[in-house]
Amino acid sequence: MRAVDIIEKKKKNQELSKEEIDFLLEGYLKEEIPDYQMSSFLMAVYFNNMTKEELTYFTLKMRDSGDTIFFNNLDYYLVDKHSTGGVGDKVTVVLGPILSAVGMATTKLSGKGLGHTGGTIDKFESIENFKFSVTKEELVEIANKTGVGLMGYSDNIVPLDKKIYALRDVTATVDSIPLIASSIMSKKLAIQSKLIILDVKVGDGAFMKTIEDARELSRRMVEIGNSVGRKTIAVLTNMEEPLGYSIGNANEIIEGIEALKGNWSNDLKEVVYEIVYLALKHKGEVETFEQASKIIDNVIANGKALELLKEFIELSGGNGEVVNDYSLLPTPKSVLEVYSNEEGYITKIKAEEIGKAAMVIGAGRATKEDEVDHAVGLLLKKKVGDKVQVGDLIAEIYYNDSKNIESSKNMVLDAFVVGKNKVENIKNILEIIE
Ligand code: URA
């Protein structure tokens, strides 16, 4: 078998056999097939796509390039929720304790943030001494006690994805839907769960800018999961503005804690309630959204979900008192207020621009090597649909280093789009694909 013949076949839009996929991926991992041939193959996939059978096999082969995490000692209904990456996305912080409080457990691998989107690891690492589980044993111990099983990615999880992703990054093949689907699902299938819920963000701040692309990506990921016997559901959610009010790290942990005390932003609440509803429905515990809502309301009102978050933080090495005393979190030195210079209704808050405004003051990473300043971030004072006058406070920027503060402020001003008419009926849950 020769790599060039496999590339030729994909160029002609013919379906590859399992043996051909084995040859290509094993050869690339062992560095017997060079980057230039893999690049050419990836571009052929970009233009010609992959069939269901090819994509499923390709994904499993990617997964099996490294460690997989399967348990025989976690006796829960295990839910893996994955977000395709948003701005202000603190869903995992809130969702884990709620799923646990209603009788399930989360098992998922979490990552660090890069570019304009944040990562769950960075948010939790705002808490002094907090350490994510790095071994299966640690995850099982904490998940058995709290129902929250989060683990950081290691280099041994799907190493082929790291290698291929780096190549896609420099060969203009990142935005290929089958390649994104296999990249995400290879990592989802590397850790055991009963149900995978994919929160596919749609809009300005998201990987998928249009509903059509989001639908196609969702359909491909659901197809992969379901065809290997892992129930998979995609929830398409709105990213035409950041989720909630805070964008950063420590401040997103605070917003998550406040949500567990019942103080929610509407959009965050809608997304979290929908995901919990879907999990309860698939577990066979509820039929309607209203039934699920009552169950969730109850574990918020009785403090059970908050208590589980506190325990999870303590077992991960942090001080659980943080849920009552926010001064235990890193605090920024200065605040800059940003005022509107327009009048009307806010029609959009460009999430990507807001993510970048937070990144340039240190809340995110421009490159993988950058250090995050956990204390800094943005607080939105207005959301889409709100009315503004000239001079109204629209956002606060919390910072330590003033180096990029002016460009951050300009990005915030540019992000707020003001129009004459109020946007009505903002939908946060756009579609469900299963
Ligand atoms: N996230 C991933 O893990 N992989 C992609 O290809 C894109 C987003």
Automatic annotation (TrEMBL):
SMART domains linked to this entry: PYNP_C
Residue intervals of the Pyrimidine nucleoside phosphorylase C-terminal domain: 345-419
InterPro entries reported in the protein's UniProt record: Glycosyl_Trfase_fam3, Glycosyl_Trfase_fam3_N_dom, Glycosyl_Trfase_fam3_N_dom_sf, Nuc_phospho_transferase, PYNP-like_C_sf, PYNP_C, Pyrmidine_PPas_bac/euk, Thymidine/pyrmidine_PPase
Enzyme Commission no: 2.4.2.2
Name of the top EC class for this enzyme: transferase
GO molecular-function term, one example from the UniProt record: thymidine phosphorylase activity
Cofactor(s) annotated in UniProt: K(+)
Function: Catalyzes phosphorolysis of the pyrimidine nucleosides uridine, thymidine and 2'-deoxyuridine with the formation of the corresponding pyrimidine base and ribose-1-phosphate.
Similarity comment text for this entry: Belongs to the thymidine/pyrimidine-nucleoside phosphorylase family.
Record's subunit section: Homodimer.
Protein name: Pyrimidine-nucleoside phosphorylase
Organism: Gemella sanguinis
Phylogenetic classification of the source organism: Bacteria, Bacillati, Bacillota, Bacilli, Bacillales
